[in-house]
Amino acid sequence: MPDLPVPSAALPLTRDAMGDVARRAIEIARARGASDSEVEISAAVGQSVTVRRGEVETVEYNRDKGLGITVFFGQRRGNASTSDLSPEAVERTVEAACAIARHTAEDEFAGLPDAARLYRGGGRDLSLFHPWGLGVEEAIELARRCEAAALAVDKRITNSEGATVSSYDSDFVLANSLGFCDGFASSKASVSCSVVAEDKGGMQRDYWYTSQRDAAKLEAADDVGRIAGQRAVARLGGRRMATAEMPVLFEANIAGSLLSHFVSAASGSSLYRRSSFLLDRLGTQVFAPQVDIFEDPHLPGEMASANFDAEGVATAPRAIVEAGVLKGWFLSTYSARKLGLETSGNAGGNHNLIVRPGELDLDGLLKKMGRGFLVTELMGQGVNPVTGDYSRGAAGFWVEGGVVRHAIEEVTIAGNLLDMFLGIQAVGRDVLVRGSKQSGSILIERMTIAGD
Description:
Blueprint: H1 15-31, E1 36-52, E2 55-73, E3 76-82, H2 87-102, H3 136-151, E4 157-176, E5 181-182, E6 185-199, E7 202-212, H4 221-234, E8 244-250, H5 252-265, H6 268-272, E9 293-295, E10 318-322, E11 325-326, H7 333-339, E12 353-355, H8 362-369, E13 372-379, E14 389-400, E15 403-416, H9 417-422, E16 424-427, E17 432-434, E18 437-439, E19 442-450
Parallel strand pairs: 8-13, 12-18
Antiparallel strand pairs: 1-2, 1-4, 2-3, 4-5, 4-6, 6-7, 8-19, 9-10, 9-12, 10-11, 13-14, 14-15, 15-19, 16-19, 17-18
Helix pairs in contact: 1-2, 3-4
């Protein structure tokens, strides 16, 4: 196993202990007749503090460990899991997985990845492990500062849903009967705040948050609170609008949701089930020509960085969309075999997905749009993955003459995802990282706004 950042002593298991348990589980599976096996051992510790109206509302602390094993008897597969890592419990869990495998039907596509595709070390240090080490009292003080900054924005902010400060450290080892055994530690720190503003026209809520592997890169707690307060106040005086077709600008804060729909449609499980609006579209134009989308698993410090995927397959940077043309799918070993293709190293999901930013910031995009709807919040799940039909509740702002005029609420935006992707006029340079997706605001030429 390569040298990796040493996990926090606070974690329930050491790296060596996890490796020992993993190897023992594989040996037990082999002794029980399994032709192949794969096991993951994980350990995590976390802390979350929420303050509401200056008072501590919750303090949560978790300390977890677990084992999950998948065994293969030829092309029969079984899996089981446990949070008890005693030798007896591990043996019982492996035996349970074996019993399940013996009673399942054969699946010609089941099995471990090809050995040649497994990560064999030598990858770069991705800088994913930065324990915050924040004490409870320090976290409480930080949450209070965050909330206080939000409440101080405007006297019309009358209530708070709280400010939360959390940290999470984890480590894992993935091993299989092909000799693969590796893992890495990671951290996540976040600060969030949600407040309610009120005037004679009613109440509005909004929020903001920041999340990073390294707490030193978080937005300042005061800034998180201030932005949350400003966003809540800006939504006061919201109006409905008449039904119309017009340009729609998805704020960077929610633009990643469009990428999520794309990833879902381009994923192996949707493709082999033939439940995707992107079926048979590889190599064709599915986005506007100015759209480029890249996947880079090796960006230091990012949430979706990894040298290998959830099966141990080595990852690599690649182009997903070039000049609007779809160049690749998101495939695991199983889905790739079902489709007669090769795994793309995406077992467990996409890695850092990056939409190439354009030259305009949000103000520039508003001016380019001229007249239309700036969407800042989406509600509901009205997306048909088979047809691409899209219909979601939305709130945001009416834009006239390239300037925000007033808040909009209680409307529905509708279209078809393929038409929306092809109708992208611009991607902003106001890039916001939300988990595994990185995108600026996205301007779409035309959608239906259903209002009065």
